[in-house]
């Protein structure tokens, strides 16, 4: 459930706030997002969409939506608290914040060998990696997910030979430790990107030290990606959360889905881990994106049948995270959801 902050695995190693920092319940999920200027991209319709057009399209779609007004307080202290939280959101959504944060972590690594924070904790990271492995093996055999976490089937035990052909991209990779976990699970074609050069330098240094020099790390912003290839597996652990913290959050979030849809190969999967959005909220956000994309496809394509398939559909989610009850609803501190690309 959104609204709960996860403590870093080793808080004494770094004073930075988690990329998955959780915002107040007074602020809606649609008000979160990551700093990046848009650049011209080639659309799937054959035309070129520049920054202004993408921003305008996103703003138009947002203006047509009915978002509930944020609750207000009669007490100035409450207002000041909300304003402080909004300011913190804006900070965590800016690239300058993360450049500074990773510069500190890189210095800490060089001086003390510390890897920095593990977003959501090592246990969550290991579970995401092992669960994703099982999911990819099922898909490799044309099977639907069995919806059972931590299953030790014969296929999973023999996973290396099935995963060797999977191309993997981790967007907003940070220190790259999730890719190291995926490598331990048998994935071998691994790429990590981050818009912070300091994060990429740290990830490379850790991979070299830990014996994973084959992992490829690149400086690239998912919102203005220059990658010209697609991947069978794209992972996001906390990146969409950080994108949601930008002052222009709703627009940046829509740009995120547009970019990610171009990075996931047909039949490939997107695995998102979030502590700011629930499973149901992520599914709803994808459904909203699907509706926008299908509408755009029908507008641009002469043959309307060509644009009727939604880009993503829900595939599965991790069910073994601890849950709790709050306000009559059940939720967990972390949600991991997989979507398949049509």
TrEMBL record:
CDD domains in alphabetical order: AdoMet_MTases (cd02440)
Pfam families, per database record: Methyltransf_31
Coiled coil location: none
Cited Gene3D superfamilies: Vaccinia Virus protein VP39
Superkingdom of the source species: Eukaryota
EC number of this enzyme: 2.1.1.-
Domain Methyltransferase: 167-291
Entry GO CC: cytoplasm
Segments for region (Disordered): 1-27, 45-80
GO biological process annotation, one example: methylation
GO MF annotations in UniProt: protein-lysine N-methyltransferase activity
Keywords (A to Z) from UniProt: Cytoplasm, Methyltransferase, S-adenosyl-L-methionine, Transferase
InterPro entries linked to this entry: Efm4/METTL10, Methyltranfer_dom, SAM-dependent_MTases_sf
Main location: cytoplasm
Compartments (UniProt record): Cytoplasm
Family annotation (HAMAP family): Methyltr_EFM4
Function recorded in the entry: S-adenosyl-L-methionine-dependent protein-lysine N-methyltransferase that methylates elongation factor 1-alpha.
Protein family according to the UniProt entry: Belongs to the class I-like SAM-binding methyltransferase superfamily. EFM4 family.
Protein name in the entry: Protein-lysine N-methyltransferase SO802_002465
Organism: Lithocarpus litseifolius
């Amino acid at each position: 459930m959104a609204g709960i902050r996860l403590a870093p695995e080793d808080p004494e190693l770094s004073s930075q706030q988690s990329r998955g920092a959780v915002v107040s319940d007074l602020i809606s999920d649609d008000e979160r997002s990551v700093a990046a200027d848009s650049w011209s991209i080639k659309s799937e319709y054959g035309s070129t969409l520049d920054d202004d057009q993408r921003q305008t399209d996103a703003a138009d779609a947002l203006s047509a939506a009915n978002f509930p007004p944020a609750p207000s307080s009669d007490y100035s202290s409450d207002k000041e608290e909300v304003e402080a939280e909004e300011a913190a959101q804006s900070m965590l959504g800016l690239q300058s914040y993360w450049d500074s944060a990773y510069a500190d972590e890189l210095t800490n690594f060089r001086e003390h060998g510390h890897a920095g924070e593990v977003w959501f904790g090592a246990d969550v990271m290991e579970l995401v990696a092992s669960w994703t492995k099982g999911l990819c093996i099922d898909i490799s055999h044309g099977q639907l997910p069995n919806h059972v976490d931590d299953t030790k089937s014969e296929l999973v035990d023999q996973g290396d030979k099935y995963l060797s052909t999977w191309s993997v991209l981790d967007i907003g990779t940070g220190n790259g430790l999730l890719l190291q976990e995926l490598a331990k699970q048998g994935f071998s074609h691994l790429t990590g990107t981050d818009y912070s050069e300091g994060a990429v330098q740290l990830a490379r240094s850790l991979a070299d030290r830990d014996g994973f020099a084959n992992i490829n790390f690149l400086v690239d912003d998912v919102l203005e990606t220059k990658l010209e290839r697609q991947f069978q597996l794209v992972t996001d652990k906390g990146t969409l959360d950080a994108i949601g913290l930008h002052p222009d959050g709703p627009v940046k979030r829509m740009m995120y889905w547009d970019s990610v849809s171009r990075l996931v190969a047909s039949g490939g999967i997107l695995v998102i881990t979030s502590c700011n959005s629930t499973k149901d909220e992520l599914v709803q956000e994808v459904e909203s994106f699907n509706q926008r994309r299908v509408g755009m496809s029908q507008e641009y394509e002469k043959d309307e049948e060509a644009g009727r398939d939604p880009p993503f559909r829900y595939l599965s989610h991790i069910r073994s995270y601890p849950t709790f009850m709050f306000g009559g609803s059940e939720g967990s501190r972390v949600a991991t959801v997989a979507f398949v690309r049509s």
